[in-house]
Amino acid sequence: MSNPAVKLSEAEWKKRLNDEQYRVTRTAGTERPFGKVYEEFEKQGEGTYFCVCCGVELFTSKEKFHSGCGWPSFYDASKAKNVVERADNSHGMIRVETLCKRCGAHLGHVFEGESVSAATPTKRRFCINGVALHYVPAGGKAPPLLQLDDKSVSDKKEAVAKEAGVEVRKP
User: Fold this and answer.
1) In order of start, what are the domains of the chain with their CATH numbers?
2) Which residues of the chain have pLDDT under 70?
C-alpha cells in the first residue's frame, strides 16, 4: 500500500481509539463474529459508514447486504478511492485485505467466487469489522476528517501565511 496521508504514532492512535478499535484497525485484528457490533449493524437503516480512525467515507447502506457470516457485509465500497485492497497471505491463507486508503486502517477482507458473493451485483463480499466503522444515519452529520499530516500541506499553509504577512509559529 502506498503511504497513507494520515500518519499518527501508535501512542496517538491508542488515545483516539478504544482497545478493540485499536487492535482491529492498527494491528490487523478481527472482531468476534455475531457480536454486539454486528447485531447493531444488522439493525441500522439508511446511512453512511465512515472510517473510525480518520473519518473518511467507506461504504453506504446502499451496498450493505445480509451475508449471514457474522460481520458487516457490503458488495462494493461507496467511495472506491477510499478503500484499497492488497494481498494478505497471513495465517496460512491467501486472501485480499481491505484497508482505508487515507489512514491505512485494517478494515477486513474482500471475497469473490463464493456462493454468498455470487448473488451480489459485483460478485464480491467486503467482510468488514464493525469496530472499524462509524455509522451515521441518513441526514446525519459526517464525522470530522482527521487532519492530514503532510509536509507539503504544512509548507503550503506556511507560504500562504507569509505572503499574507502573518507570523508563522512553529510548535
Assistant:
1) 10-146 (2.170.150.20)
2) 1-4, 148-161, 168-171
